[in-house]
Every structure is written in C-alpha cells, then in structure tokens.
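yo

u said u wanted the structure for the complex thing, so here. seqs first:
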Amino acid sequence: MCPRGVSIPLRRPFAAAVALLTLVLAGCSSGSYPVPGQSAAQSPPPTTFQTQHAGGTLTVLSKSAAGTVDPQISYDNQPWQMLHTVYDGLLAFRKVGGEKSTELVPDLAEAMPKVTDGGRTYTFTLRRGVRFSTGAEVTSADVGASFRRIFRASGPTAGTFYQNIVGADACLARPADCTLPGVTAHGREIVIRLTRSDSEFPMKLAVPHAVILPADTPAKDQGNKPIPGTGPYAIAAYDPNKRLLLKRNPHFKEWSHAAQPQGYPDRIVYQYGTTVESEVTAVENGSADAVWDQPPADRLNELGTRFINQVHVNSLSAFWYLPLNVNIAPFNNLKARQAVNWAIDRSAAIRLFGGTALGRPACTVLPDGFPGHTDFCNYTKPSGTTWKGNDMARAKRLVKESGTAGQKVAVVVADDETSKSMGEYVRSVLQQIGYQASLKVLSANIQFGYIQNTNNNVQISVTQWYQDYPAASDFLNVLLSCSSFHKGSDSSINISGYCDKTLDATIKRAMKLDQADPEAAARLWGQADRQAMSQAPIVPLFAPRQVDFVSQRVGNYQFHKQFSMLVDQLWVK
Amino acid sequence: MISSKNGPWRTAGRQLIRNRPAMISAAAFLIILLACLAAPLYAHHVAHVDPLASNIAGTTVVDGRTADLLQQSTDGLGLGVTPLGPTWDPGHYLLGADNQGRDVAARLLYGGRNSLYIGLASAFVCCLLAAVLGIVAGYFGGWIDAVLARLFDVVWAFPVYLLAICLSVVLVSGGLHIGPLHLNAGSLLLPILIIAVIYVPYVARPLRGQVMALRERDFIQASIGSGAGDWRIMRREVLPNVLPTLIVFLPMMTALNMLTESALSFLSVGVQSPDASWGTIINDGLGLLYTRPVVTVAPGLLIALTAVALNVLGDGVRDALDPNARLRGGA
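structre next:
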C-alpha cells in the first residue's frame, strides 16, 4: 500500500498462510485462519459488547484527509482505518486487537468458503437479514454488481488482486462492458471462479476494495460522496478540507462479533487541517481523542515520558527503502547500487525516524516474520545475518570501480519532515561516496506517483511500503517483478524498474507452491529475497513502528494488524 | 541636480558619519558580514566540522566527556532522539547540533553567506533593472511608458510572496533554460533572479516618476535643444540625478530581499540542499522547536538583526543623500 503517515500493519503471515491453505484445501466451511503475530501494548479486548461504554463522540485529528471515501477506490491507510467500520466484504479480518487480528472470518458470508476445483472455485452463502444504511437488504445481486464495479470503476487493485477471476481480463480491457462471468449467484449462493488457484484470494476478499455495495452504485469513483454500507457506522458528512463524520447506521444489527462488532462511540469525527504539533497538544489537553499522524520527532520524548499510559507503540509490516533506478545512470551499474547499500547507515535512518524504539534495521525485502524471511544481510560490516554497520571505505571503492564517481544524482523525497531528513542524510552519504548529490523535495501528494514514472528519470528516492495483506508476494512480487513495472506510468510500483527473468521465475514458482507446499514456497520466497538483494535494486532501511497517542479518557485501545487502531472499539465513556 | 563633482557626495558622507544609529547599524551589518565570510575558517579551523554533511552517528566532547550529537531518549518509553544542545564551546558545537548532527553555529555562518549574497545580489540586479526600465519609461513616455507602466502594474498586482512562490516552484524544480542561459535547479542565481524580478516595480515606479519630472526640467530641455542623443541624455543627465534614490533603495531592498529569500527558503522553494540559508535553517529547526529552539531562534535573530541594521542604515543614507525623499509608503 502506498506510503503515508501511518500504516496498514500485519505481521508473521507464514503460519497464517499455512493454516489458511490447510483449511482451504480441506474445503473448510467455517471457522477462522489464525496468524500468530507480534503483541502490542493493550488490554485484552472484551468478549461481549460493554453497554456501559457505549456513546459519546470520538474525535480524531489529522493534518489532511486522504481523498476519496469510495471503498473500492481508496488505497490509503487513513480511509482504510475508517472504512472497515462502514463496509463489509464476504470475508473480514477478525475485528480485534493483537495476534488474532490477522485471522480471516466470515463476514457477509455465512461461513468460510467451500473451496473446490483445485483452489479455483470459492462458494459462499450470503448471510440473511443484513441491511445497508438505506434499509435495503443485501442481496446476491449486490455482490455480483460490487465485484463488477471493482473493474468498471477501475479500482486500483483490479488488475493485481482480482485479475484471476474468470472474465477479469475482458473487464480490464473494457471496463464499461464488464460482465465478469466468474462471479455468479444462485439464490443466496455466490460462486467465484478463478482462472488459476490463488492462495491469497481470501485475504484479497477481506480488504476494502472487495466490500459489498448497493447494486445501483454508480460505476465511477464517488469521491466525497458517501456510498451506503452495512457496517455499524455510516458516513454522515465528508468535507476533505474540514471533517468526516461517522454516525451509527440505524439498520445495523451485529451478526458476527468477530467480523463486525457493534461500535462504541455514537459519533466518530475526523477533523482535518491542523498541524501535527496542534494535534498532539489537543490530545494532551483532552480536547481531542486521538492523533492520526505520526507525532513529530520533538514531541516523542515528551509523550514517552509524561504520557506513557496514553501512548501505544506497535510494530508494522512495512519498510522504508530507497528504490534505485536500475535503468539509468548511475544505478544501472550493479557496483554503484551495491555501494549505496554498503554506505547507508541503517541506525542513522532509524535515529531520524525517532530512535531505536521506533524501528529495526532492514537488510531484506521481506519483513521479519513473513513467509520466506530469513535473516541475511549482504551489506553489513562486520558480516552477519543482521545489519550491524555500514562500510564507507568499501562503498567509495565500489563507486570508483563502477566508473560512476562524480556523476550527478538527485534524491527525490516527499516534503514531510521525516522524509526530508532521510533524503538529506542520503544526499550527504552519496556526496561522501563520490557523487554530486542534490535533494529534490516534492509535495507528498505527488511524490509517490512522480518517483514511479520513468519519464521523470528519478535515480533514487526515499519511500515506504506497507503491506496490503500478509503475504510475501505483496512485497517481492509487487515491488520487484517485471509485471509491476510499467514504463511512463504513475502507477508503476516497481519503482526501481527492476525486471529480472530469474527472479520472476522464482516468484512464480513460490506463488504456485504457496498452496501445495507452503514450506517449499517459503524457501523459494527466501531464495527470491536473496536473488533480489544480490542485485541490490533497492536499499532496505528499516522496519518502522507506529506510535498512537490517545487522550486520557479513551479506553479499550486495540491495535489491529490490518487496520491499525480500531477507532470504533475505543471507549470515550 | 548634482552640479558639483565632490561637494554633495562629501557632504552626504559627513552627514551619514554623524548619524550615530546609522553608523551603529553599519558596524553591526559589517560584523555580521565579516563573520559570515569567515565561515570556512570557523568550520575548518575552530569547530573542525563539515557543516553540509550529515553526522548522525557523530560524537563530540562536552565537559571532557564524549557525547552523541543525536541523543537517544532513555527515559520512559525511550521514544525520540534529541540533538545536542548548545555547549558554548566554539570548538565543540557552540550552539549544538541540528537533526542531521551538523554544527548549528557553522551552518549559521554558511547560511548567512548565502542569505546575504542573495539579498545583496538580488538588490543590485533589481535596482539595475529598475533603473533601466524606470528611466526608459519616464524619459520616452508615450507608448513605451504605457507598456512598461502596465507591466509594472501587472507584476505589482500579484501578492509578492505568491508570485515569488509560483516562480520558485516552477523554476526550483526544473531549473531555468532559456536559449543559451542554463541555470540548474539548485543554483543560487535562481532565487536571486526571482526575487530581483518581483521587486522591480517597487523601485522602478518611483524612479519613473522622478524621471518624468526631470524630463521637464530646463537642463534636460537644453540638452535636447543642443542636439544631444536620447541615450546620452539618459546616461549623462538623468542617471546621475536618480542615482541618490537608487543608493537609498539599495540597503532597503537588500533587507527586503533577504527577508523574502528567508521566507522562500523556509517554504523549501528558495535555497536548495546542500546549500543552506537562514531560511532553510529555520525550516530545519521547526521539528526541534520544543526541544532545541536555538536552531530556529538563532537564524531568526540574525535575520531580524540584519534587516533592522540595513533599514536603519538605509534611512541614514536617505537622510544624507535626499532628505526630502519619501520612499517609505509614499513611493
């Protein structure tokens, strides 16, 4: 998922994938898929709704809104944190904090799907009695229309998450005429047929892009206009310059505490347009309840000492990294790319991010805990399996050997404080190892698209990647495969422009084996990670941790590994 | 009209020297200027630092003990990293470090060089352009004046900072490439040109008015009558008469341009990394406002001090050269 202040966090999906596959292959029709993960500092969640805590208004402050609230279009962490309280898909990630939040549970489906035909056919039974906020009951027609709308509205993941649905190719080619024969309904039975098995498909059904909307929803991005949903809240008002207001959905009746529990606050307000400094001060004073953005560096010490009980720090399945453009000088030279990997001091990058409590040095593409992740580090001194230190002398030598010394290099960064600091540090390092380095700061609104477009000839940039769902392919396949590289497009997430047939072949084999032999698949993912890092198309910096700061009155804080802080489960009474 | 070669200038010089506030301001400005010019000496021979290179993992000596330049919090949850504060030891991070572990004092001096360079250079360019355009418009009148005066109006109609930001955003990202003229994105000449251009009408309009009045004076009419060419009259008769006004404008425009540069750099559309200016240093210090306010306050004070010094000096020069001039507000 594209970078932003905070993240979509999920961790340690290997066991999840194993469990999931086992259940899927066994034709499991109910229950959930457990994924062990890293614990966060939070109280055990209540198992039943605590009526005495219901009510009140929860106020979340944010510097800015994140664009559209159309759930099938929005691809940003902030809306996703809110959208899961408004919409439901056939499946959902269990709505609870901690390890269990990566479990898949049936949501609008009565039970987990029956998987047949070698993992290519998923059969669901639609739950009865679920109503949209308009009062209309959810029907199988809505389900079919919603899947077609993913393509008709040109959803950002239509061509990646849902391309295996039968008929998806035609829908991608001609969205307006999309019929999507791979999704059919017989009464309440929904059948989704895939062209080939996809072990990650259930997870793709649990993200907001696959939520079920009324069949008559226009097939284009609805922008600021809320679409009726089935969750405990409905978007009552949205002005991206002022605020977003969630009110209780009058037609919501809890059908699954695991998938979509009743929310506690009567109203949830996201207020936009404040500075992060003001956000922190407001929450300290109790005039707001939570800060959406990462607290500024100069307030962290204050928060970590004076407001210990209101601060929550959680690990994220994400990493900050430097994509190196392998198609233009100087980083079309392997030694030049390796030189940057040797030169960058990961601990320095972590200091710029807020210190050792907020990040761990990264050497690999796959985050710690992902299937296939193994501790190895090609660029550390002294050598070892984890990063220990940089080697400037070696970096300088490699730059000389590469024949690229003295070339001009521009580091492209977003204009937020952390990115600018990181960019300045990288520029300084590049200068030290022999390049004429400069810094190019772009508005955060355009930087991510700009660095992806090959027409802009970006040589090196600072960016982040947060998982969409817990699978190794979401890192290696998405960030470094040939299919993710699109020349001249702002949506070319393979920012390095790295296309290696050997790596692609390994990734494809791993994805195939994900279902049949997860352990062998994990080994292949590890092999792919090593193959990638030996060619150094990126410089992994660190895996970040997220700081949530809430007001004194807030209770029942839960950190969901996919949707971060569960705003609807917070108590303000 | 200046009829003597030395008299009026010498008189003005004596009057300026007798103006104590102006002399104190000149001295203050000179000290700041010299200190900034000596930045490399300070950085390399006193502080022993590279003010443009990040030094995040670096250390220094404070009270005989080694101290990290960026200090990891060890209290509470251990969140945050705080740069070293002022040590008041010129050899060891006198004013502390910024968030890149760079010596704040050394960067202030280096930043001052750029701020003053841009302020002075853009003031010169601005006054030069304004002199040419103002004299041409005022002397020729007619359609030439109409075109130039409307051009001034158009530029004047834009809010200064808005225009400067628009120009900067376009030019600072891609540089300026017009025919044989190529200025790279990070070139200091870009902010100099941008700032000079946006303030041209502010100087050119009063000059144009002054030239229009001079045009009707007897000595100009006599020159025209005696067959002197237009360019000769403008160069030999008009220019010397508007020169005192230009000289009065120069320190004031320097102060104004320096403030504009700081504002643009603060907004990241002025001086670009790896160069620094007082504006960029204030920007660097924003994220440290709560923990290390000196990073923001010190360049802010220097900007204020320099601007006040130049303005008081400008007032002194005005009083000495043209006591009747009404350049502030009445221009």
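The radius of gyration of chain A is 23 Å. Chain A touches chain B at residues 277, 296-306, 308, 311, 313, 345, 347-348, 351-352, 354-358, 415, 417, 420-421, 423-425, 427-429, 431-432, 437-442, 547 (CB under 8 Å).
cya
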